[in-house]
Amino acid sequence: MQSIVLSSLLPVVILIAIGFVACRAGWMRAEATKDLAALVFMVLTPALLFRTMSTVHVEQLDFKPVVAYFVAAIGLFVLLLVLGKATARSAVLALAATFSNTVAIGVPLIGLAYGEAGMVTLLTVISLHALVLLTLATIVLELAVARQAAQAASISNTRGAWRRPVMDALRNGILHPVPLPILVGLLFAQTGLAMPAVLDRPLQLLGNAMGPMSLVLVGVTLANARIGQHLRAALALSALKNLVLPALVAVAGWLLGLHGLPLTILVVTASLPIGANVFMFSQRYQVAQELVTASVAVSTALGVVTVSLVMALAEKL
């Protein structure tokens, strides 16, 4: 089991290390990180999300395991958001504590450890993972940005003064490079049409580039970050993601009557390290960038131990 976890995490670590070395060797300027992050966020991520959701048929999904997973994830997200006073920073950190690396690590890990039966549950979670958590984070972040802009503009607290900022934030939260391709892809899937190969192939290539590019960018940012200053916070955030979230998912699943392999897959999925998409959000909104970068690295490194531990405990569920 340990070798399976290691073989799934090692490619992620290597990609982060490549970005780190490339920056330290001077092959990539730190100033280019923002432009590349924008490319990933505005082009590669929408391609991946649209293509993933374009094959999801709602009527074929078993929502009971999904409900257990997202009850726990959203509950933790909201708790951290409230404790952080609903700021943009607290929204990004709440996303970091709840968003798993389900594709780069989850797919090979679950496939090797639990086979096709486990993959069915995982893919059901993946089909809604981005839709639920990234859309939620987007709306909260846009509301926080709108609130900050209103305060900066000294908008009066008169009746109705809040309506325009809120409506603008909600609009921006939907017409956004994350929720929009998810929703469009989901709608396309319900038509029953097949994606033409001439369109599907470029989308596949763009989507495949998203994960590696994001992880390389994590390494580039890591080369310029001062992890020592954020190590304690990164450890705390990693503990929330790698250990607390799977415990909450286990409780939620047990309360909903889940057991056996479906519950095991949910718990292991929740224990996966922080997904690289969180890093892209921190770059996009320029919030907690160094802390999120450090947390992705720490969460991934600790995952060799924590995921193995969770998998061992999950077998008893």
Describe the structure in your own words.
The protein has 317 residues and is mainly alpha-helical. It has one domain (2-314): Na+/H+ antiporter like fold, CATH 1.20.1530. Helix content is 80%, strand content 0%. The chain contains twelve helices and no strands. It has helices spanning 2-24, 32-53, 63-83, 88-96, 102-152, 163-174, 179-191, 197-224, 227-255, 260-270, 276-285, 289-314. The chain is globular. The mean pLDDT is 84.
List keywords for this structure.
317 residues; mainly alpha; Na+/H+ antiporter like fold; 12 helices; 0% strand
Layout of secondary structure:
Elements: H1 2-24, H2 32-53, H3 63-83, H4 88-96, H5 102-152, H6 163-174, H7 179-191, H8 197-224, H9 227-255, H10 260-270, H11 276-285, H12 289-314
Helix pairs in contact: 1-5, 1-8, 1-12, 2-7, 2-8, 2-11, 3-4, 3-5, 3-9, 3-10, 4-5, 4-11, 5-6, 5-10, 8-11, 8-12, 9-10, 9-12, 10-12, 11-12
What series of H and E elements makes up the topology?
HHHHHHHHHHHH
What structural class do you assign from the helix and strand content?
Answer: mainly alpha
* Total number of domains: 1
Q: Overall mean pLDDT score? A: 84
Uncertain ranges: none
Separate helix tally: 12
Number of strands: 0
CATH topology, anyone? Answer: Na+/H+ antiporter like fold
Highest-level CATH class? Mainly Alpha
Overall geometric form: globular
Q: Report the biggest beta sheet as strand number plus sense, adding barrel if it closes.
A: none
CA radius of gyration: 19 Å
Tell me roughly what share of residues is in helical segments. over 70%
CATH architecture annotation name: Up-down Bundle
Strand content: under 5%
The N- to C-terminal Cα distance equals 17 Å
